[in-house]
Amino acid sequence: MAQTYATEVAGLGTTPVTNSNGAVQGGRIRRFRATIALAAQADGDTVVLAQVPAGYAFAYGILNASATLGSSTIAVGIAGTAAKYRAAAVFTAAAPTLFGVSTAVDDAPLAAQEVVILTNTTAALPASGTLIVDLYFSAP
Question: Which one is the CATH code of 26-139: 3.30.450.20, 2.60.120.260, 3.40.50.1820, 2.60.120.220?
Answer without folding.
Answer: 2.60.120.220
